[in-house]
Amino acid sequence: SSIDEEGYMTNAFGRPLFVKDEQDNVIYNYYIQSTGADLPIIGFKAISDTIRGRYDKIHPLYVLHDACLFDCDEDRVSTLIDVSNEVCCKIQGFGKTHFYVSNEVISGKR
Fold this sequence. Notes:
The chain is an alpha+beta fold. The protein has helices spanning 24-51, 77-88, and strands at 8-10, 16-18, 58-64, 67-72.
């Protein structure tokens, strides 16, 4: 991505970025950081879209930094893991690049 006359550029997903400093290291940092910040949001949306209407016991909650949080019944944990591994590996715009997901199950039972 290049900077236009008004100081704007876009990240890998097309999100516009305003760049005040045109030093190469700053430009690269904006591009890499913003693209990396968008990946969990895109993954969260992909998982949410896939489960919506298909699995009644899985509920998307929110994205926190690089984590996508879901609430689900114990009998749906393996389904959620399977869906997240399937859809997050195939994010459009990155060719054959795969994004692997680390799944962690946290139980609310005491």
